[in-house]
Amino acid sequence: KMLYLQRCGSDLPEEYAGVFAHEACHLQLATLFGTEETKDVSGGWHDAGDYGRYVVPGATAVAGLLIAYEDYTELLGSDALGLPESGNGVPDVLDEVRYELEWMLKMQNDNGGVHHKVTGLIFPGEVMPTDETQEMILTRIATPTTGAFAAVMAMSYTAYLPYDKAFAQKCLSAAEKAWVYLENNKENGFRNPTVVLTGEYPDKYDTDERYWAAAALYRATGKKKYINAFESILDSAAKVPFGYGWDNVGDFGSRIYLSLDDSVTKADSVKRIKDDIRDRADEMLGLSVSDGYGISLGMEYPWGSNMTVCNNAIHLLYAGKLLSNDAYTNAALRHYHYIFGANPLSICYVTGFGTHTPDSTHHRPSMVLGQTMPGMLVGGPNSNLEDPYARAVLSGMPPAKCYADNSQSYSCNEVTVYWNSPLFYLMAYVLGE
Ligand code: G3I
Ligand code: 9MR
Ligand code: ZN
């Protein structure tokens, strides 16, 4: 539901959005940065507390929902979650993901490459989405962006095939076209142009996105070229690509590869990937065992630390199942409890749940309405104190207490679609066990 309430470009009627209802926003054509060209890239999800729409984090959020659906298909099959699409014969989680995918398809250039984001030049003030009327700027194509797009479009082919063959095929064709772009273009990460001051999501390396896309495309098509690409990326990578975050996404690819029949995988690749998953799970377990609250951040609580907590839990759950190790699974559950209140601040980091919960998030609709949208996971403690408010009130605090429930503090009290997605996965696990 949080993702539904982040929808851009369509009316959100009171029937589904309650006080957060608003008319369609950001319908204006976007101008391709540095040109006079304009393009319709309306739709998708607002990223976070701002109204930017960014392919890289959007793909991460889509991937989190799709692996939850893959792993808990029965449990997440509900077609009655209170969306406009409820009752259409398609599980609502897929309907919600489709809303982002339809937008992402617009972000693909005719040459197969994918544009990085669409935002204003600057962040808007404290306004409702319909009141952000500044010109929308479409930034250039980047290869990590194109790789993440190819990966989630191929994953979406697999997910939608039973429900909408035509849409599934549309996703796959877009994924294959994006792959051809990657074959013909060397690594080219994204950086903001100087005058563009909105979110950047800079990602220099595209090895992990290519790795992930190759695995997803092979699973979708069975074409040798994709599994060959996967193996050669793995062979030439110094480390097995890792992560579930917006910048490092390799684990999404590893899970797919390890799910393939051993008649198509290579024993030494499987071993190398499994050993890497085990080594990182052992490191997380070691940190969890020595941490007062059982999480695995050590002393570094980065921006979006609650996302890292959830992503580490996903890794531990996956490793627990893959390697039949309950210690990993139990540690994952401690990560879950931390999010919901077993932490140094005894706060439930999900808005609207529990007795002590954030009510002043850095989320423009909540700030304008003076009412915090429920069901949002806040970024959480950030020991790097990355905004003026945090620096003013949190200096000297221990890392796990570097959190303030204040709407000015975007570096610890914002919300994003790709912080909710790993939480969604964990809740599906807990509900399903
Ligand atoms: O990973 C390094 C770590 O190795 C290092 O020790 C540490 C200390 O310097 O920095 C870590 O990098 C951090 C990076 O996120 C990790 O991905 C940076 O400090 C931190 O500044 C960076 O923050 C990002 C933030 O934008 C600022 O760029 C967040 O990940 C990202 O979630 C956030 O995204 C924003 C969008 O731009 C706009 N929309 C809201 C959204 C959430 O706040
Ligand atoms: O609202 C913006 C939030 O989404 C970003 O994560 C954050 C850091 O990039 O910036 C926020 O916008 C602030 C801007 O950076 C500085 N002026 C105040 C803006 C609202 O807090
Ligand atoms: Zn919008």
Observed structural traits:
433 residues, mainly alpha, 5-stranded mixed β-sheet, 5 strands, globular, binds ligand G3I, binds ligand 9MR, binds zinc ion
Structure notes:
This protein is mainly alpha-helical. Helix 5 packs antiparallel against helix 6 (165-184), helix 6 crosses helix 7 and helix 10 (267-289) crosses helix 11. The model has no long low-confidence stretch (mean pLDDT 98). The chain has a 5-stranded mixed sheet with strand order 2-1-5-4-3. It starts with a helix and ends with a helix. The chain has helices at 2-5, 14-17, 55-71, 92-106, 143-160, 165-184, 207-221, 224-236, 250-259, 267-289, 305-322, 326-340, 364-369, 388-394, 417-432, and strands spanning 30-32, 38-39, 53-54, 117-119, 136-138. A hairpin with a 5-residue loop joins strand 1 and strand 2. Ligand 9MR binds next to loops. Residues 48-50, 123, 199, 410, 414 line the site of ligand 9MR.
